[in-house]
Design brief:
- By secondary structure, the chain is an alpha/beta fold.
- It has 2 domains: 120 residues, Response regulator (Rossmann fold), CATH 3.40.50; 109 residues, Winged helix-like DNA-binding domain superfamily/Winged helix DNA-binding domain (Arc Repressor Mutant, subunit A, Orthogonal Bundle), CATH 1.10.10.10.
- Helices cover 41% and strands 20% of the residues.
- The chain is built from 9 helices and 11 strands.
- The strands form 3 sheets. Strands 2-1-3-4-5 form a 5-stranded parallel β-sheet, with helices on both faces.
- α2 runs parallel beside α3.
- Bound molecules: calcium ion.
- The site of calcium ion (CA) has 5 residues, from loops.
C-alpha cells in the first residue's frame, strides 16, 4: 500500500508527538515540522496528502504558511489545529482556504475522523490512464480490452470501457449513477436511466472475472445508496502508478 504522509506543523513538541502517534495508529506517516518555515517544506514533501497546521508558530505564522502552501498546492487539504475559543482564527483560516479545523485538545478518534472526512471530500486529481493492472489482469483503455495472465483477451464495449475509465480517473471517490450517465453517456441524468448503468456494470464485472475464478480482484465496488467506486486494490494500484502528489 502506498504510504499516506501527513505534514504535522506544530511547535509544541508534546502536542506534536501526540499527534504523530495518533497518525501512526491511523496508518499515516507523519512528517514533522516545529516552525512555519519547516512547515512549508514539510507540506511540499512528496507524497503528502494532508496538512495539520497550528497557527501560532515561530518563524512564520500559520496563516502565512497556509498562503505559501496554497501557492504551490492549491488543492492540498489543510486542517487547522486551533485553541479552544479562538473563533476568529477558525473563521480566518477557513476563509483563507483551510479545509477544516479541530479544536485542541482532541482525541485520536476525533482527529482521524476529521482527516478521513476531509480526504473523502477532496476530489481526487483526475488521472489520465491508458491502462490499469490489478491482480495480474490488465485493462487496456485504448484497445478496450481485458487481458488475463493466460493471455485470454476480452473486448469491452464503449460504455463498459467508459465506465471503468471514469472510475479509474477518480480513484477513491464514489461516483453516482447520474454522474456516470452524464460523463460517460453524455446525457442529462434521469432517474429511470440509472438502471442502464447497473446493467453495464454487471456485464463489466463479468468480463473482468477470470475464466477459472482464480483472480478475485474487486474492480468495481458498489456503495449502497450512492453509486460505484473503483475497488480498493485497483485504486491503490492506480494511485501508486500514475498519480504522484505534485
Ligand atoms: Ca503553537
Amino acid at each position: 500500500m502506498k504510504e499516506r504522509r501527513i505534514a504535522v506543523i506544530e511547535d509544541e513538541s508534546a502536542i506534536r508527538r501526540g499527534i504523530c502517534d495518533m497518525l501512526r495508529v491511523g496508518g499515516y506517516t507523519p512528517i514533522e515540522a516545529a516552525d512555519g518555515e519547516a512547515g512549508v517544506a514539510a507540506a511540499r514533501t512528496s507524497g503528502v496528502v494532508l496538512v495539520l497546521l497550528d497557527l501560532m508558530l515561530p518563524k512564520m505564522d500559520g496563516m502565512q504558511v497556509l498562503e505559501e502552501i496554497r501557492k504551490s498546492h492549491p488543492t492540498l487539504p489543510v486542517i487547522i489545529l486551533t485553541a479552544r475559543g479562538a473563533e476568529n482564527d477558525r473563521v480566518l483560516g477557513l476563509k483563507r482556504g483551510a479545509d477544516d479545523y479541530v479544536v485542541k485538545p482532541f482525541s485520536a478518534r476525533e482527529l482521524l475522523a476529521r482527516i478521513e472526512a476531509v480526504l473523502r471530500r477532496t476530489p481526487a486529481r483526475p488521472t489520465v490512464v491508458s491502462s490499469v493492472v490489478a491482480g495480474g489482469v490488465k485493462v487496456d483503455f485504448a484497445r478496450r480490452e481485458v487481458v488475463f495472465p493466460n493471455d485470454e483477451r476480452r473486448k469491452l464495449s464503449e460504455m463498459e470501457a467508459g465506465i471503468l475509465e471514469f472510475l479509474t480517473s477518480n480513484p477513491g471517490r464514489v461516483v453516482t449513477r447520474e454522474e456516470l450517465l452524464t460523463r460517460v453517456w453524455g446525457i442529462t441524468a434521469d432517474a429511470s436511466d440509472t438502471r442502464a448503468v447497473d446493467m453495464h456494470v454487471t456485464r463489466l464485472r463479468t468480463k473482468l472475472t477470470a475464466p477459472d475464478d482464480t483472480i478475485t480482484v474487486e474492480w468495481i465496488s458498489t456503495v449502497r445508496g450512492k453509486g460505484y467506486m473503483l475497488g480498493p486494490t485497483v485504486a491503490e494500484a492506480v494511485l501508486a502508478e500514475g498519480n504522484p502528489v505534485p
